[in-house]
Amino acid sequence: MTDLLDLDSISAQERYKLLSALVIPRPVAWVTTMDAQGVVNAAPYSFFNVFGQDPALIILGLQNKPDGSAKDTTRNIDATGEFVVNLATPALVADMVGTAASYDPGESEPTALGLKLASSGRVKPPRLADAPVAIECERMMALSLSAERSILLGRAVGLATRAGLVDTATMYVDWAGDYPVARLFADRYARLEEIERFGIPEPYRPEKNGEDRE
After folding, report:
1. H or E element: which one contains 97?
2. What is the pLDDT along the chain (214 residues), one digit of tens a residue?
């Protein structure tokens, strides 16, 4: 038997509960931004992924406050056009979750929690120094989908990684087993580990009539 559910017949909160619990795991963007006064904000977002290489495209799903006003991350990106996506490993989960708490506008989560910051190479907002990866981004455009939800497209312009994580001669990445965490649902996160290499070769179809491969 299969259970069928019409998503248009249930509330938005119920749709969120179902979809976020079923579409798992999801990568987490631990986003740092800076306001016009230089106050640094940090917040995690699990509606996030990389969507291409030319341009190097980062997409964030941003949520407004219940009254429809923008949160600090959205407001800062709109004002400065820049942000940094930090990736957290298991040792950093408690700090990452701590930045999701409600802070007053103009209050810095990294300062309140004692998180170390480091300068970025291409953008003004700093990165989180203990994160193994920081992707520096410039705002491209945003789509407002409702009073609650918007989608932000950013172009990745810089990358800072933990020493030894990337071989810059070959662009080979070696996580050495210490992968970023992924979001499940509610207060649940997942550790990632490589369990098997399936050894299935990439499908290949010879070029036909001068057409490129799909």
Report:
1. helix 93-98
2. 999 999 999 999 999 999 999 999 999 999 999 999 999 999 999 999 999 999 999 999 998 888 878 899 999 999 999 999 999 999 999 999 999 998 888 899 999 999 999 999 999 999 999 999 999 999 999 999 988 899 999 999 999 999 999 999 999 999 999 999 999 998 899 999 887 777 777 777 665 555 555 5
How far is CA 191 from each of CA 109, 134, 156, rounded to the nearest angstrom? 24, 19, 25
102, burial (CB in 10 Å: exposed 0-12, middle 13-18, buried 19+): exposed
Q: What is the CATH number of the domain that holds 128?
A: 2.30.110.10
DSSP 8-state assignment for residue 159:
E
Neighbouring C-beta atoms of residue 115, cutoff 10 Å: 23
Q: Specify the pTM.
A: 0.90
Confirm whether 183 is domain-assigned.
yes
